[in-house]
Amino acid sequence: xxxxxxxxxxxxxxxxxxxxxxxxxxxxxxxxxxxxxxxxxxxxxxxxxxxxxxxxxxxxxxxxxxxxxxxxxxxxxxxxxxxxxxxxxxxxxxxxxxxxxxxxxxxxxxxxxxxxxxxxxxxxxxxxxxxxxxxxxxxxxxxxxxxxxxxxxxxxxxxxxxxxxxxxxxxxxxxxxxxxxxxxxxxxxxxxxxxxxxxxxxxxxxxxxxxxxxxxxxxxxxxxxxxxxxxxxxxxxxxxxxxxxxxxxxxxxxxxxxxxxxxxxxxxxxxxxxxxxxxxxxxxxxxxxxxxxxxxxxxxxxxxxxxxxxxxxxxxxxxxxxxxxxxxxxxxxxxxxxxxxxxxxxxxxxxxxxxxxxxxxxxxxxxxxxxxxxxxxxxxxxxxxxx
Length: 387
Ligand code: SF4
Hints:
Blueprint: H1 31-39, H2 46-53, H3 60-75, E1 78-88, H4 117-129, E2 134-139, H5 146-163, E3 166-170, H6 176-185, E4 189-191, H7 201-204, H8 210-222, E5 226-228, E6 231-233, H9 239-252, E7 256-261, H10 278-291, E8 296-299, H11 303-307, H12 311-314, E9 320-322, H13 334-344, E10 347-348
The protein binds iron/sulfur cluster (SF4).
């Protein structure tokens, strides 16, 4: 079998330096060759994924170039923008340790039940105005109750008819019947994050299991909905856990993969746990791109916090990001996101047609859908909520 690894350059011990991000003796990947092999249909192996995550900082541009070759092949220079709406905040009976809305969090987040129609519509208008492709309707819950299901069934057709936005619903664990109802009312996609590996899951949540989440994703797929599922990096997991998650998403054929970088919020069990560098985040994004070459890859919560001045580089691997705030934390002003896209020479694609064009923010949108159109692809990644 051919390999993208080259011989060690300085030491016969190929793995001796692999815990460091400094350059030195190690078995190096030929990143360009790996990119070409991925484009030819190769599935990245665990060893190759590990080599990417452990690659030295002075390989970073080569790693990103490999990811970019694959990203460009499938998504060109386009960027999709997504808009998050926290339609029900706090009040969650689950104990996801990273989440400020969980029952074990003391973080001072807003608490409210599912919002009324006018507020959900106003958010949709803002999403369209901000050139979002998809409106991500999120509730904090173990799963939706009947009242919440009915609210979603009522608002989704209205939002689609008025604003032409794709809809991604992030409602927690779903039954097969609930997934079918979401499909029937016009939801395009459901977000439900794996968040981490099966092995590590019990360390970040005890009120439901990784298997519960996978079951929901199968219900979503069986209902004919697209799957949006990703995770959170920086929760104390190992590289192996991150790789396992990326490979499981490949098996699940997730159309959309949101990658969050833990924003460790005071009052949550995971406060002050993250030690990510911008380079760590970029290596992770590159690895997800190479393992999941055709999936939408979204830089999600923690982008501004962890990538900092290197945010633009993330879009050489990812092809999507949120515009505006996350669920319980603030994003940077949208104008800064548009500036990143412009400065890269990339273009926003798939934006819903804002009906009041004179008020729309104009920054080179391509591929806008026809008014009222539906059936397009959407995606949702929720800041720090796995839904
Ligand atoms: S991540 Fe979602 S399910 Fe978990 S505690 Fe937060 S709101 Fe609840």
